[in-house]
Specification:
The chain has helices at about 20-30, 45-55, 70-85, 110-135, 160-175, 200-215, 225-240, and strands at about 15, 35-40, 60-65, 90-95, 140-145, 180-190, 245-250. By secondary structure, the protein is of the alpha/beta class. The chain has one domain: Rossmann fold (3-Layer(aba) Sandwich), CATH 3.40.50. It has a 7-stranded parallel beta sheet, sandwiched between helices. The longest helix is centred in the middle third of the chain and has 29 residues, at about 110-135. The radius of gyration is 18 Å and the shape is globular.
Length: about 260
C-alpha cells in the first residue's frame, strides 16, 4: 500500500472570519507554529492589523478582503492568497455571525443571509480550494461547527439550521474524500467568548437565556476562550498523516465544586 508522505513543515493556511474571535486566535496560533497565514474577512483593516502583529512577532501573514457570501470575492481571495504564499495546505472556514430570534419570527431574507454565510459561504471555499488539495493528495479543510448542530437551542434564528447543514456537509465530505489524502474535519465549539451575537439587544439576550435555562442549556456560566478553539484546530491539522481527527468538540470546563474531592 502507498505510504503517506509527511506534510510540509511550513503549510500555507487560509482562515475565513479572521478579523476577530476564533478566526483571529487560529491565525495567531498557526503563525506561531511557523505556518504562513492568509487572513480573510469583510473587515479587512482589522485583518491587516492582526497580520502586522504576526509579522512583528516574526511570522508570515497576509490580509485580503473576503466576503464568503459572494463567489467572486472567494475566488479573488483564494487567488491572492496563493499568489502570496503558494498552494493552500490548510483551510479553516470560520466566517459567520449570529442573529438571535425565533425561527417563525425571523424575516426569510435575514434567515437566508445567515445560511448564506455559515453554510453556503463555507461551500464556496470548499469548491474553490479542494481541487488543488486533491491534485496534491494532501490538505486539511477544517469547518468550525457548533454544538448547536448536535443540540439545537431556542431563539437562535437560522444559526441552528445553518450549523446542522454545515456539519452534515463536513461528514459527507469525509466520506467522499476518503482515500484522497485530503482530510475534512469539524471543530465543534461549545459556548465561547466571541463578539458574535453580543451586540444583540439586551431584551433579546434575556429572553434567550431564560429559554436556555428552561430547556437545560445553561448548566454553568463558564465560557471558552477563542484560543481554546484555536488549540483544537492546531491539534486537528497537526495530526500526522495517516491519522484523522474527524470531530473535535470543545466544551468549557465547569467551575470546581466546593464539595469536590
Amino acid at each position: 500500500m502507498p505510504r503517506f508522505e509527511p506534510n510540509p513543515v511550513r503549510r500555507h493556511a487560509v482562515i475565513s472570519g479572521a478579523s476577530s474571535g476564533i478566526g483571529t486566535a487560529t491565525a495567531i496560533a498557526l503563525a506561531e507554529l511557523g505556518h504562513p497565514v492568509t487572513l480573510g474577512a469583510r473587515r479587512v483593516q482589522e485583518c491587516e492589523t492582526i497580520a502586522e502583529k504576526i509579522r512583528a512577532n516574526g511570522g508570515s501573514a497576509f490580509a485580503h478582503y473576503l466576503d464568503v457570501a459572494q463567489t467572486d470575492s472567494v475566488d479573488e481571495f483564494v487567488a491572492a492568497a496563493e499568489n502570496e504564499f503558494g498552494p493552500i495546505e490548510i483551510a479553516v472556514s470560520g466566517a459567520g455571525d449570529l442573529e438571535f430570534g425565533q425561527a417563525h419570527a425571523m424575516d426569510p431574507e435575514r434567515f437566508l443571509a445567515q445560511v448564506q454565510v455559515h453554510l453556503v459561504g463555507a461551500h464556496r471555499l470548499v469548491h474553490r480550494i479542494l481541487p488543488g488539495m486533491l491534485e496534491r493528495q494532501r490538505g486539511d479543510f477544517v469547518l468550525i461547527g457548533s454544538d448547536c448542530a448536535d443540540s439545537p437551542r431556542p431563539r437562535m434564528g437560522a444559526y441552528n439550521a445553518a450549523k446542522m447543514g454545515l456539519e452534515a456537509m463536513g461528514r459527507q465530505m469525509r466520506m467522499e474524500l476518503e482515500g484522497t489524502g485530503v482530510r475534512s474535519s469539524i471543530v465543534r465549539p461549545g459556548p465561547t467568548q466571541t463578539a458574535m451575537g453580543w451586540n444583540a439587544p439586551q431584551d433579546d439576550v434575556a429572553a434567550l437565556l431564560e429559554d436556555w435555562a428552561k430547556w437545560g442549556f445553561a448548566r454553568h456560566a463558564y465560557f471558552l476562550r477563542a484560543s481554546d478553539i484555536a488549540a483544537a484546530v492546531v491539534a486537528v491539522v497537526s495530526a500526522p498523516r495517516g491519522a484523522h481527527l474527524v470531530l473535535v468538540e470543545v466544551q468549557p470546563e465547569a467551575p470546581l465544586r466546593k464539595d469536590a474531592q
